[in-house]
Amino acid sequence: MSFFDLGLAPSLAQAAQSRGLMAPTAVQQQAIPVVLGGRDLQACAPTGSGKTAAYVLPLLQDWMLSDAAQRSGAKATRALVLVPTRELAAQVAELIYMVGESLGKRPKVAVLTGGVSINPQLMALRGGVDMVIATPGRLLDVVEHSRLQLKTLRTLVLDEADRLMDLGFAEELDKVLALVPEGQARQTLLFSATFAPSVQGLAAKLLRPDHVKVEIASTHREDATIEQRVFHIDAAKRTALLRELVEQYKGQRMLVFVASRYTAEHVANKLYDKKINATAFHGDLSQGARKQVLQEFKNQQWQVLITTDLAARGIHVDDLPLVVNYDLPRSPIEYTHRIGRTGRAGASGLAISFVSPATEAHWKLIAKRNALTDVVLETLPQYPVTEKAPERQPHEDGDNGGVKGKRMSKKDKLRAAAAAATKEQGEGDKR
Length: 431
Hints:
By secondary structure, this protein is α/β, with parallel strands linked by helices. It has helices at residues 10-18, 26-36, 51-64, 86-103, 119-124, 136-145, 161-166, 170-177, 197-206, 238-248, 261-273, 287-298, 332-339, 360-369, 410-430, and strands spanning 41-44, 79-82, 109-112, 131-134, 155-159, 187-192, 212-215, 226-232, 254-257, 278-281, 304-307, 322-325, 349-355, 377-379. It is globular.
């Protein structure tokens, strides 16, 4: 099957192919005809499966066939794409620009994300824009300070919908929905690699009753393109093993996930001091620095990128052969997204995780939730395990190993405390 078979205009299908999209992936084959047909869509597909193009290409076609593509005057916004991170916003915009360049024309796009000055973004809205790609918080700030109108919207896209909910955007999403046409007057598309229960509730709220659900069934356990290995090692020896892996895979780029920004800098500095071309990537960097570091890594100027979960989603690096979990992720879902940075678009990849005695119970939960029954915990002869696992006290919510989603987050605890205070005040007023 080719893009010409999916209902795309020949010029658009040709432009997509000229940019390396030679044949539609499974999610594109199922999603593109649905979107072109005007139906609401809930699409769940693994990382690296081509979800971005599955909605970008139909958005471009809608723009091409509209009067907006021919007019030179003020533009009315036709599409809004909500994303959780600046990096994913940049990736979506890049695909629109690339395909548009091959078309010989492209829509006017505004990318509205935090971490940078709002003034250039407000300036970019002058004369109107065809498409907006935004994080929810910055979008609301821009609406407050500009004349951006979203009532002309034809299509609303939520990309990485589960991540939007996980990051606590629910309240901001409600405010955004108040700015766009009602559900029957717009087309709504939800895309993600996973659909948590909270997102299922969001789908029921946002999508028309006759919406189409597309699910590309695949787990990394079944996906032969990603080999997974797990090494049992003392926490204090992880950096030494990481240096050994860098030497073993010399000349190949490596994405290394850690738990904190401090650890990213610390490990990157340790490697750099050993003459290893490594650098850190995390949320404390400015937007300009993040963009530069990521581009340098894509250009192979850095061999090793030490990162937080900032790079677990919305980051695509061609031919990335190796991902390492120096620290395990808090959530089993994040494990899926992390290792999904390799083995993309049919290429093979290797995912390695370090498990110390202190994190062994947590690994067992991650393995259980992801059905990784065939992934064994290996011990390397040169790194005998000598550390002892700490005694674990059962948590009041159950012994869950620290998996995110079971224990209350700091934000949830603050909300619960505020609710309790309000209730107590109300009871005091009654007394």
